[in-house]
Amino acid sequence: AQKITQTQPGMFVQEKEAVTLDCTYDTSDQSYGLFWYKQPSSGEMIFLIYQGSYDEQNATEGRYSLNFQKARKSANLVISASQLGDSAMYFCAMREGYNRKLIWGLGTSLAVNP
Amino acid sequence: DVKVTQSSRYLVKRTGEKVFLECVQDMDHENMFWYRQDPGLGLRLIYFSYDVKMKEKGDIPEGYSVSREKKERFSLILESASTNQTSMYLCASRGLRGAPNYGYTFGSGTRLTVV
In terms of C-beta density within 10 A (0-12 exposed, 13-18 middle, 19 or more buried), how is residue A22 classed? Predict the structure, then answer.
């Protein structure tokens, strides 16, 4: 079974609008962390935002926020005021417990239209 | 800023060649990782290292080996390159808890083509 599921292979959004990218996860650990990364066509994986399982507030980083719903095991990324430069692949990933490894989703391709 | 540098952005090698992919980080991170990324398969962990001379197999270690003789450098070795190893290879390092991204920082990737 997939531990990280990103159900949207591709998404389109108009410039300046908000967009939500979905991520659901599956773990039996109480301690875990959730990450979102952006990968532009250049290939580099760019860290966007992190949410720990014990963090009481949703994480925010500039235009990025993470809608963390623990009971539903979802960690959706919200990008406000989309920009053309936001066009990229977006990956959700999870670290379980004290495991050093990350478990990755298959990604969502986001296209921002002018 | 933490930098993770991969020595080559693009490589073309012949089947059967021994290939070295180099990764260097400049922030004294203990943990380093090698992933390969293929369309539809996401990122898959090949090997990781949690200290000098220490290594652990990831999910797809077959056909690969690694070397970590110094803390800052983690090398991925394809002993005898094959066409099914054509892929994007990403190196990452991980720092201390409390860093903004929990310390995972990636290099720019190496696109390897084996012909």
Answer: middle
pLDDT-derived band at A3 (thresholds 50, 70, 90) equals very high
Task: Please answer yes or no on whether A102 and B104 come within 8 Å at the CB atom.
Answer: yes
What is the residue-averaged pLDDT of chain B? 91
B69, A24, A29, A58: which is closest to B77 by C-alpha? Answer: B69
Give the nearest partner residue to A35 out of B41, B104, B108, using CB atoms. Answer: B104
Residues A62-76 pLDDT 10s: 999 999 999 999 999
> Which of B33, B44, B106, B108 best tests the A interface by mutation, with the highest count of A CBs <10 A?
B106
Q: What is the pLDDT of residue B48?
A: 93
d(CA A87, CA B53): 39
Three-class SS of residue B84? Answer: helix
pLDDT at A100: 74
